[in-house]
């Protein structure tokens, strides 16, 4: 190992190291976990009894659960605060974070708007500028609450930009409020709309907008099941109780996720309806005719299909129906069912995502998780392949049809995000805003490798590290993964990961099955009865990093959040000896009951449920992290992280997993849970809290890899 030695004599360093090692052992051995009461709840699945002794921790409103959370945090933070270099990490993270960050601009009415953070502001501020006048603050979410935990979730403008509606999230909750203002005066025009969840805001002219929500559940709003989403129309100046129910109110229209959007010309209302996170029905209504009927575009959920744009009655749809890697098709709105679809951009071997702007269509292809972009005219002609600044990820190439310039961002794991201005007619790009991050990308490199999983499947992984790093098996390494819900992990810069790289850390991201990197087939290969493929891919990634001497089991941590938290929970219980540290964040960890909370039943496309069949129950029981903690096993040093207001993946998952580990784990490694209060699944988390979280995570990780001082 390499340490920050300065001019310290070797003998003094040795003595210091022995003292710190002794201190670490004392901290771990003397750690006393809070007592967690065991209940006598037993469920029976297909004749098999399964004990659930910590069922009481699911009650997020009980005093007993509240006291348990406080007691766990006391133990966890006492340990974290004892780590000698935790404050040094926090100081460096604060320095790295403290630079001005801005978004690409966008035009609404007479103003150009953009988001900006001066450096350490908890939330980004929305500014606007008219012509050459000085920019002014339009919305400052930092004023929404004293502690910075109320965030701006969404901001949309009416067609002419004179009105704006924005939603806020309080304490990280998915339940939102919508506030309508006069965009010129910033004056609030009516009472906020409340109890909005999983919703867009789609305007029709200046008269009103569509939004979606559930009936407020009985019991806890943070954990009670929600499964009938409804689409409403709100007319400005009327009470929310008078809002028109548009779709989702009948048994025939009952779906778990319903969304409504209006085409740019206000001609069509498009309604998507789904019961899981994959696959949707699609309907449209002609808004120019009050008496028009709802027209069915797709009456099944065998595909993910959306309307990209329209030109009069000609619709452009993006779909993976009969095209796992996606394609663009056209059809007339008068007869829009699939038998009438015509290919516009056919499917290729690479996964397609599509955007529009400045009167063009932009096709982004993902080639081994790296972006390529092609520009098309609306008549189907390919205009050009856009020359990107390098190998990495892009975001943008979207805007209004009348725009004469577009913007996109470019980034990868070692390159801070840079905003480029793009000329859609000439095809040239120029830098609009460079990152001010205090990070020299030239000192780091990213390498894409392909490794072989258990069943012979080739899986890509990108490994980022400081140039000159010796592959001697001693490098502290974080292996990150997700592997689910058709989500692709493409290269992107993270301020937090920059700090990790600066400290000599290796950062590896594996593109596991279950994700979307190679289309629908890649996704399906990591779902339901094939979910073990995801865990095998992750384990094989860890073995590759060890075999190739990037690291060793003693210096390897695994990290993932949400579905990635499940990933970490599964691999640490299946192969505990492979990792030094496990970092499951806001994880789905009780696979027998996940579908009983909030909108969890919508994840069944990926997971299946314990009620589906005996085979599915046994499969889930076989890997469910909560149910696979074994007595006396030495698990990695584990820091579970969650938020007490997480109503996406309820914190009971993490609570129960922590209780099982603390009760059963053998060895000396700590099994701790860090519970952020007044926080949710992650979106809108204040910068101050984010810095504290990463300081704790990195400090814990290095400390339990055996580092007496920060590596360099």
From TrEMBL:
One of its GO terms (biological process) is proteolysis. One of its GO terms (molecular function) is oligopeptidase activity. Residues 34-434 form the Peptidase S9A N-terminal domain. Keywords: Hydrolase, Protease, Serine protease. GO terms for cellular component: cytosol. Its EC number is 3.4.21.26. It comes from the Bacteria. It catalyses: Hydrolysis of Pro-|-Xaa >> Ala-|-Xaa in oligopeptides. Belongs to the peptidase S9A family. This is prolyl oligopeptidase. It comes from Idiomarina abyssalis. The lineage of its organism: Bacteria, Pseudomonadati, Pseudomonadota, Gammaproteobacteria, Alteromonadales.
């Amino acid at each position: 190992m390499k340490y920050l030695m300065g001019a310290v004599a070797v003998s003094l360093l040795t003595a210091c190291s022995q003292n710190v090692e002794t201190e670490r052992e004392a901290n771990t051995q003397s750690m006393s976990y809070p007592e967690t009461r065991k209940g006598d709840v037993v469920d029976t699945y297909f004749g098999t009894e399964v004990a659930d002794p910590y069922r009481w921790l699911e009650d997020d409103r009980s005093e007993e659960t509240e006291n348990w959370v406080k007691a766990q945090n006391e133990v966890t933070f006492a340990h974290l605060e004892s780590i000698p270099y935790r404050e040094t990490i926090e100081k460096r993270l604060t320095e790295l974070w403290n630079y001005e960050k801005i978004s690409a601009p966008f035009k609404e009415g007479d103003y150009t708007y953009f988001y900006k953070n001066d450096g350490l502001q908890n939330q980004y501020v929305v500014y606007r500028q008219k012509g050459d006048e000085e920019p002014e603050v339009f919305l400052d979410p930092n004023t929404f609450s004293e502690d910075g935990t109320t965030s701006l979730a969404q901001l949309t403008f009416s067609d002419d930009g004179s009105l704006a509606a924005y939603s806020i999230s309080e304490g990280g909750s998915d339940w939102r409020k919508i506030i309508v203002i006069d965009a010129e005066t910033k004056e609030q025009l009516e009472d906020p709309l409340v109890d909005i969840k999983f919703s867009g805001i789609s305007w029709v002219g200046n008269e009103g907008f569509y939004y979606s929500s559930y009936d407020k559940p009985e019991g806890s709003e943070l954990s009670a099941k929600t499964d009938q989403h409804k689409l409403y129309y709100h007319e400005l100046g009327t009470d929310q109780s008078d809002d028109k129910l548009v779709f989702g109110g009948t048994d025939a229209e009952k779906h778990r996720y319903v969304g409504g959007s209006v085409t740019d010309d206000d001609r069509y209302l498009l309604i998507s309806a789904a019961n899981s996170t994959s696959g949707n029905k699609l309907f449209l209504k002609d808004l120019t005719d009050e008496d028009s009927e709802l027209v069915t575009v797709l009456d099944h959920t065998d595909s993910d299909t959306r309307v990209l744009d329209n030109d009069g009655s000609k619709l452009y749809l993006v779909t993976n129906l009969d095209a796992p890697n996606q394609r663009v098709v056209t059809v007339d709105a008068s007869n829009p069912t699939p038998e009438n679809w015509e290919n516009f951009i056919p499917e290729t071997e690479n996964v397609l995502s599509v955007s529009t702007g400045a009167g063009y269509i932009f096709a982004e292809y993902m080639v081994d998780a790296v972006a390529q972009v092609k520009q098309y005219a609306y008549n189907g002609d390919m205009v050009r392949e856009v020359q990107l600044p390098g190998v990495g990820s892009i975001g943008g190439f979207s805007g209004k049809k009348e725009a004469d310039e577009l913007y996109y961002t470019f980034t990868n794991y070692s390159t801070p995000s840079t905003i480029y201005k793009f000329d859609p007619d000439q095809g040239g790009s120029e830098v609009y805003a460079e990152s001010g991050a205090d990070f020299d990308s030239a000192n780091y490199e990213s390498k894409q490798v392909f490794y072989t999983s258990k069943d012979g499947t080739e899986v890509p992984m990108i490994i980022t590290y400081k140039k000159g790093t010796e592959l001697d098996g001693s490098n502290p390494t974080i292996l990150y993964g997700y592997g689910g819900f058709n989500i692709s992990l493409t290269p992107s810069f993270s301020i937090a990961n920059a700090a990790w790289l600066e400290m000599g850390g290796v950062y590896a991201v594996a593109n596991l099955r279950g994700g979307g990197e190679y289309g629908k087939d890649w996704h399906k290969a990591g779902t339901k009865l094939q979910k073990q493929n995801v865990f095998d891919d992750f384990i094989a990634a860890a073995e590759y990093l060890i075999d190739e001497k990037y690291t060793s089991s003693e210096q390897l941590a695994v990290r993932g959040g949400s579905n990635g938290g499940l990933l970490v929970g599964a691999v640490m219980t299946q192969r505990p000896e492979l990792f030094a540290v496990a970092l499951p964040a806001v994880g789905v960890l009780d696979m027998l009951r996940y579908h009983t909370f909030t909108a969890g039943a919508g994840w069944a496309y990926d997971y299946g449920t314990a009620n589906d069949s005996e085979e599915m129950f046994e499969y889930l029981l076989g890997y469910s992290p909560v149910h696979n903690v074994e007595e006396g096993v030495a698990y990695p040093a584990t820091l579970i992280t969650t938020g007490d207001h997480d109503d996406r993946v309820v914190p009971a998952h993490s609570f129960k997993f922590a209780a099982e580990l603390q009760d059963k784990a053998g060895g000396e490694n700590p099994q701790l849970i860090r519970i952020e209060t007044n926080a949710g699944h992650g979106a809108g988390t204040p910068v101050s809290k984010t810095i504290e979280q990463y300081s704790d995570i990195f400090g814990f990780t290095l400390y339990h890899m055996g580092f007496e001082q920060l590596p360099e």
